[in-house]
Amino acid sequence: MRLVFDTSVMAAAIRNNIGASQRLLRATLERQGSIDLPVSVPLLIEYEAVMTRAEHLTASRLSVADVGVLLDAVAAVAEPVRLAFLWRPALPDADDDMVLEVAVNGQADAIVTFNRRDFAAAEEQFAIAVLSPGAAVKQLEKTS
User: Fold this and answer.
1) Rounded to an integer, what distance in angstroms lies between the CA atom of residue 61 and that of residue 40?
2) 0.85 surpassed by pTM
3) Does position 92 have pLDDT exceeding 80, yes or no?
4) Distance in angstroms (rounded) separating the CA atoms of residues 70 and 1
5) DSSP bridge pairs for 4
6) How far is CA 56 from each of CA 59, 60, 143, rounded to the nearest angstrom?
7) Under a CB-based contact definition with an 8 Å cutoff, are residues 29 and 77 in contact?
8) N-to-C CA span, the chain
9) Is 58:83 a contact under the CB 8 Å cutoff?
10) Mean per-residue pLDDT for 98-126?
């Protein structure tokens, strides 16, 4: 399953060791199941910018260097996506447009986010499912 993780999912993955976001990230890194993770350079930079905020570092007990190592691992298993087409503005938040562009250009099956409402246009215009982390875990369990 081709999943694009919203930045909030990546932040949640480092903040909560037992949550659905953490399970998705671990499964991706350990190549368990059938998760393909399309990413772009701008999206990886956004992940880093958000995940290295003081509140996330404090909650996760990680350092900036730790986050860098984690994102290097993500980049190593992710599928690079060339952003051939940009759709801006398509969503209420410009940062969400970046996630949508990776999903569309990377032919993702779903965007995984806590902010499903703001991604409603993705489902309607591009036929890309928008799933919560918990729903994505359940869907992966069905296919395993």
Assistant:
1) 27
2) yes
3) no
4) 21
5) 111
6) 5, 6, 32
7) yes
8) 11
9) no
10) 88
